[in-house]
Write a structure and sequence with these properties.
- By secondary structure, this protein is an alpha+beta fold.
- Helix content is about 60%, strand content about 5%.
- The chain has three domains: about 1-30; about 80-255, Up-down Bundle (Glutathione S-transferase Yfyf (Class Pi), Chain A, domain 2); about 275-390, 60s Ribosomal Protein L30, Chain: A.
- The protein has seven helices and four strands.
- Strands 1-4-2-3 form a four-stranded mixed beta sheet.
- Helix 7 links the parallel strand 2 (about 325-335) and strand 3 (about 370-375).
- Helix 2 (about 80-135) packs antiparallel against helix 3 (about 140-185) and helix 3 runs antiparallel to helix 4 (about 195-250).
- The chain is elongated.
Length: about 400
């Protein structure tokens, strides 16, 4: 073979190999993952590249099973559909970065919930332990601890607000994922696409679907967390009110009455006795106290009557027997004496009933479960407050 022919053969081989590399880069068939540096690439050669990962993508989401957390990558094809692919890939990277941020925010919120709830629980446990053995009424050390518990509970409420923000942002991300799904499906029907465009669209669609599954799981988790912590905080606020009453008295009562399950008032289905039928048809409704035995009688025959612990026990047992129970507080004053004395006793008796009403509310009994009334009686020698079960 002549030297000229040999040179021609070498040149043809070089052109053939260069043409193969060009074709590989153009149609995205070079799967080695090695991309030429644009600054060192020969003039006229198309170099494949991928969009640099966003800061959120540099900390990938935890995955299970196969699949990358990076946005779908592929060489640009230069077609109109290829440009749409690049736009969708950029949106996908932003979506996955958002999901990673939401998961980090959820983890931070959960850590705050654990820290603040533990601080609250430890403080309340110390208060209960001191009250269990008995202490002085209004112990200032217990009051300081109660304020500390209140602060921890307020912080826990703030943690719930943080969870709500995560939920709102994740819901917006879910809507964006739905948009990407629809936009990717629509891109398949665009004219002027090559096979590589459709391959990259399918890859993007797969990753959008996987990200949507993560978002749904995240939303469910956050929703459950908000409901659980919200119920806990609401119950503990009632318990703190009851605990404050116990600190005032220096003795432990028990959990808030509000934590008990309240049912609907029972409706009697049996026919009423003749006397009851006459009372029902009367223009003036009969009070519960008429002819009934009171559940509790509190006699205010001396200053500073300590009745809270016995009252709590009686109401608690009544609710155990009848969760739908409601109560009537009757202020009873002596009817003997001058008109002025009766009036003074009646006013004092009403104030006593209001104090009992506040005590019940502080113990967690809903106010709509209690009614107040007042009367005088010749059978009593001092003011009383009688409590009846309705």
């Amino acid at each position: 073979m002549s030297i000229r022919a040999s040179h021609c053969a070498i040149l043809a081989t070089a052109l053939l190999l260069g043409g193969c590399a060009y074709a590989d880069d153009l149609f995205g068939t070079n799967w080695s993952g090695e991309h030429s540096n644009a600054s060192s690439a020969p003039a006229g050669q198309v170099t494949s590249y991928s969009i640099p990962p966003s800061p959120a993508e540099s900390n990938p989401l935890p995955t299970t099973g196969a699949g990358s957390t990076m946005a779908a990558s592929g060489a640009p094809t230069g077609t109109i559909v290829g440009q749409k692919v690049q736009s969708l890939r950029s949106d996908l990277g932003r979506l996955k970065g958002n999901v990673a941020q939401r998961q980090q925010d959820l983890g931070a919120a959960r850590a705050s919930v654990q820290r603040d709830s533990q601080a609250y629980f430890d403080t309340v446990a110390r208060i209960n332990s001191r009250l269990q053995t008995g202490t002085t009424p209004g112990n200032p050390n217990l009051i300081a601890q109660w304020n500390q518990a209140q602060t921890s509970l307020d912080r826990l409420s703030g943690d719930i607000g943080q969870l709500n923000r995560v939920s709102t942002q994740a819901a917006a991300d879910s809507s964006f994922a739905s948009y990407l799904t629809n936009a990717t499906r629509a891109a398949f029907s665009l004219q002027g696409a090559v096979e590589e465009d459709h391959r990259q669209l399918a890859e993007i669609q797969t990753e959008v679907d996987a990200t949507s599954v993560k978002l749904d799981a995240l939303l469910n988790t956050v929703s459950d967390e908000i409901a659980r912590q919200g119920n806990y905080v609401a119950n503990e606020r009632d318990n703190l009110i009851t605990l404050s009453q116990a600190i005032k008295n220096g003795r432990l009562f028990g959990p808030s009455l509000a934590t008990r399950a309240f049912g609907s008032p029972a409706v009697a289905s049996a026919p009423l006795p003749a006397r009851s039928r006459r009372a029902a048809t009367s223009s003036r409704p009969q009070p519960v106290s008429a002819g009934n035995r009171p559940l509790v009688v509190i006699r205010f025959d001396r200053p500073n009557v300590s009745y809270q612990e016995a009252l709590y026990t009686a109401i608690s047992r009544a609710l155990e027997r009848k969760p739908s129970a409601a109560f009537e507080l009757v202020a009873v004053a002596p009817s003997s004496g001058t008109a002025a004395q009766v009036a003074v006793n009646s006013n004092a008796s009403k104030h006593n009933a209001e104090d009992v009403m506040r005590s019940l509310t502080n113990m967690g009994l809903p106010p709509d479960r209690v009614t107040l009334s007042a009367t005088t009686s010749s059978d009593v020698t001092s003011n009383e407050v009688r409590i009846y079960v309705r």
